[in-house]
Structure formats: structure tokens, C-alpha cells
Fold this protein.
Amino acid sequence: MASGFTHSLKDSLTRTRNVVFSRVASLLGASEVTPSTWEEIEELLIQADVGVETTIYLVERLRKRAGDEAILRRQAMATALREELRALLPNPPPLNLGHPLDVILIVGVNGSGKTTSIAKLAHRYQREGRRLLLAAADTFRAGATDQLVIWAERIGVGVITGPEGGDPGAVVFDALQAAQARGKDLLIADTAGRLHTQYNLMAELRKVRKVTAKSLPGAPHETLLVLDATTGQNALSQAKHFMEAVEITGVILAKLDSTARGGMVFAIARELGLPVRFVGTGETLNDLVPFDADTFLDGLLSDQN
């Protein structure tokens, strides 16, 4: 990862590090770690939205290591903490891209940062030389298409649109046809910001995926779920519902710089079994970086290294 991206990811973790993980490190480095110390660590990790299940697992692992290895020195405990956190973040397989026409379907609820994340992703791939097209298949929310069109104009990429309230599957179908006719090699499709409690909208999302697969066998090659890092456990609940509707292949974690809940990355990995693919680190088009577990941990634990 380039140094600029590394600093961007680390900087986005400032709140999570200062509010939670620097205090966890201090507690583990205390001269005497008591039962109440472990309880306080649990509370801090849950505060960071590591998740109750993942927090209990992590603290049990640390307590076991502290006993089995007779860890007393601060640096040894810091190393143990990093190792256990790293074990929760396995290296994901590469993105399933590299086809004559790659298709990425973007899903998520309204307000999660979905449209902005699409713009950032498109900007990133455009800089890498991809010939891309956008599909404005969020036809239900008033102004959603206009918002995506404005971003597309800023970036300088084309976008296929449909009528407000129209069939999103038809928009994706038209976009696939247009991408092939224009010699594009990447299509990024927006979808309605569906409330996961609305069955009809989730059914519509399944339909969009079926239309995509029928129009281009093997597509969509990636279906990325945008989650708002500031919503913590609510975002995890949303993710579970989306996973029931469509096959999610990864997560874009938006607004990481605006929260102290960066610990939810561990819950996403362990409780959902999903890799975090990209992280939103700010408000500009350049503020979307590939997730890297080691860089992420450096950002969380830098004060103790």
C-alpha cells in the first residue's frame, strides 16, 4: 500500500485509537492485571463495537495467554494483543476482477454513504486506467439518480439512468448492453438504499442480481455492501439481512474517520465472515483506500509501539 494510503487509513483511526485502544493497551500494561481490569477491557472493546461475541472471545484468548505464558511485561502484552487482533482478520482472497467486463454491484441502506462510496470507487478505478461506466439503478429514492449523475460528471465517467420509480433491473440491463457496446471493462451499479426490513425492496434487490447474472454469466463479480462505521452494531444487523437477500462478497466501511467504533471491523470479519475491502477515510474523492489488516492494526495500536 502506498505511503499516502497508509497515512490516510491510520489517520482515520485516530478516534478509535485515542478513545479505546490506547486505554486497552494501558490496562494491559499495568503492573497488576486483576479481574476488574479484564472487565474494563471488555467494556472498552464493546464500546468500540468490536461486538459482544468477538469481545468475549478476544478477552478469553488474552487471559489464557497471560496465564499460560506468564506474560508480565508491557511489550509482551502489547504483542499478544496485536497477534490476537490480527488472527481475527484473515487475508481475504483477491477481488474477483479481471474479466472482459467486470461488474460490481453496490448495496446498502440510505444514508450509509453508498453513493459517495461509488463515486470514490469509480474515481479510484479510473485513475488505474479502467474504462468504466456507472448504472443509476436506485430508482426509488427521489434525487438518487441526480446525485449519481453529478458525481459522474465530476469524475468524467458515463452513467446509464432510468425513470424515477422505474424498474432497476431494466437500468442494469441497459447499462450492461451499453458497457459492452462502448468497450468498457468495468460497470459499477448503484441500487436502491433499501431498508432491510422492507421485504419488497429486498426482493427487488434479488431481482437486480438475477437480471445481471442472466445478462452476463458470472456477474456480478463482486457485490459490495456499504456500511456506515458510525452506526456500529446497527450496521452489523443490516449486513445480516442483506446477506440473506443476496450474496455479499465484501464490505466498504464508510465514515471510519468520523467514529470511535472502528473495532467493528473485527466483528464484520468474525461474526459475518465478510472481508472489508475498502475504507472511507474522509470526504474527498481520494478518501477511499483498500483495507489492509496490518496497516489497520498499526493505526489502532501505534501509541503503544
